[in-house]
Amino acid sequence: MNDRILREQLIELLTGAHAHVALKQALKGLGPSLRGKRPAAGVHSIYEELEHMRLAQEDILRYTLDAGWQSPKWPEGYWPRRPAPTAAQWKACVKAFEADLAEVCALVRRVDLDLTARIPHGEGHSYLREILLVADHNAYHLGQIVETRKLLGVWPAR
User: Fold this and answer.
1) 158 lies in a domain?
2) In 3D, which of 67, 54, 69, 35 has the Cα closest to residue 101?
3) pLDDT per position as a tens digit, 57-87
4) Does residue 101 fall inside a structural domain?
C-alpha cells in the first residue's frame, strides 16, 4: 500500500465517523446534568467513559514518544474518581482529549517516521500498533458513550 494512502486512512480512522461516531457527534447536545449520570448499575457515566479514553490515549501517546513515561497504575489510574465532573473538569477533559488526538494525528503525518518501525523503547511494539490501539480503544468507548446516551434517552444526538 502507498505510504500516503496508509497515513490518510489512519487519520480518517482516528478522526472520522466511518464505522463509529466521532467525538463531537457523540457529545453533541449533551447537557451538563447528563455528563455524570450513570443510567444503570454497572454502566459508566459519559464523563467516566470520556475521561478513561483521555487517560488511555494520553498513556499510549506518551509511551510511544517518551522512554521515561510512567504509565498510571492499572486500573485505578485510568478512570476518574467520581462519575460526575465539574464544568471545569469536563472542559479540561474534552480539550486534553482533542489535543492528544491531534498529536497522534501529527505523529501519523510525520513522513520521516516509518510507522512500521519498532519504537526504540517500545518492548517490540511498532508506531503503527500504538496508533491502531488508540483508534480501536477510542472507537470502543465512543460506542459505550452512545449506548449510555441511549439508556439515558438522549440518542440520537440533536
Assistant:
1) no
2) 54
3) 999 999 999 999 999 999 999 999 999 999 9
4) yes
CATH, residue 7: 1.20.120.450
Q: Which domain holds residue 138?
A: 3-152
Q: Residue 23 falls within a domain, yes or no? A: yes
What's the rounded Cα separation, in Å, for the pair 126 and 116?
Answer: 6
Give the chain's domain count: 1
| pTM reported for the whole predicted model | 0.95
